Task: structure prediction
Amino acid sequence: MEFNAENILLLGAILVFCSILISKTGYRFGIPSLLLFLIVGMFFGSDGLGLQFGNAGQAQFIGMMALSIILFSGGVDTKIKEIRPVLAPGIMLSTIGVLLTTLLTGFFIFYISHWTGLDIEMSLVVSLLLAATMSSTDSASVFSILRSQKLNLKHNLRPMLELESGSNDPMAYMLTIVLIQLATANNASVADIATNFAFQFIFGGLAGYGIGKLMVWINNRINLSNTSLYPILILSLVFFTFTVTDLLKGNGYLAVYIAGIVLGNAKIVNRKETQTFFDGFTWLVQIVMFLALGLLVNPHELLIVAPTALLIGLFMMIVARPLSVILCLLPFRNLPKRAWTFTSWVGLRGAVPIIFATYPVVANVDGADQIFNIVFFITLLSLVLQGSTIASFARKLNLDLPLEKIGNDFGVELPDEINSSLKDITVTDEMIANGDRLADMRLPKGTLVMIIKRGTEYIVPNGSVSLHIGDKLLLISENQ
Result:
């Protein structure tokens, strides 16, 4: 059965519904949602229930749109004050680390394609191209596992890994595009490649920063009557950022990520509505992207490349990624060696390598189908071996911390323009030792109790209210 105008909504609804139900079970056991979404797509695909989806160009477009939203949303969630202490190692990993992973893995692929009995034969450029498509890591899967296991990490590892994962896709993308040009034309000079790299990084960064500032200005001054339109306005500007930057030969992925950082760290009106919209929409585009990739692959073809892909995947996990991490983190002596070890193991492959593997297919590079199948197999291998052991590995290395509490138990948030903060406290016997009335509590100057929660009951506070041990108080305080 093929997708058409009559059945696409029905089939799409069934696929998304099944994916969400299955991910609920996987979340409980720490299995990456990405892996489950891919499996659902494969189950419904040509080798499963027979749904036909074989257009790599359409899958590439879906991935491009989805990655724009995912990177922008990741940028919005990136807080400058958290990443500032780990900015240098994070950028080293996302640039030099990606390049080193590509070189080490590429030369290994070239070696095994000529000196072993494996069914693979690739030129050096194509070997490097295969490595480049897999050189970036996936943040969404890593941190969904950490959150499901209620883990935080010592030594600022979490913001460092988030920064690396959010900013290393542009580097992998540029390497992939340059190597495709070399594989199809072989007429680009080293100077042209270096100039292209520099222009994409510089222009992509400047465009992202400039349009991000424009987003903040428009969002705060447009004064829409319907608050639901604010996130839609931002969404249109995200796609504008990506497409315009890409048309002008800059790096669109880098631009949307930086624009997200600018917006996320600025004071904006209707932040809650915008964040809620993008949280849900990001999940939707991730599910659609993963399902499309699962439908695109033919599982029986994975068996053909399995020996080669297994060898390459293990080399990346055990040799290429650890060596790249060690070389990048050598200047940063404040990080203990066990942090290096954990960072090496979090080289988790996800949807991005599979999307990048469609580019050689669309460009008709020799051996492109083999590249796609190898990348898909290694992604599954990485999700199974690394994705399912990240939380336990963090505990074994004594790098885990309790997950920090975000927000308050009342689910109440204040707009950015209000110069106040909220927090909740639980009444203890010490608090009411000198009197159980609210008026007897010694609250700091400028702090008021907004509401009291007693079990499932909510009480509007006044000075004569009697407090009970275990009551939760929502406090509002002026920011100093």
Summary: The first helix runs from residue 8 to 28.
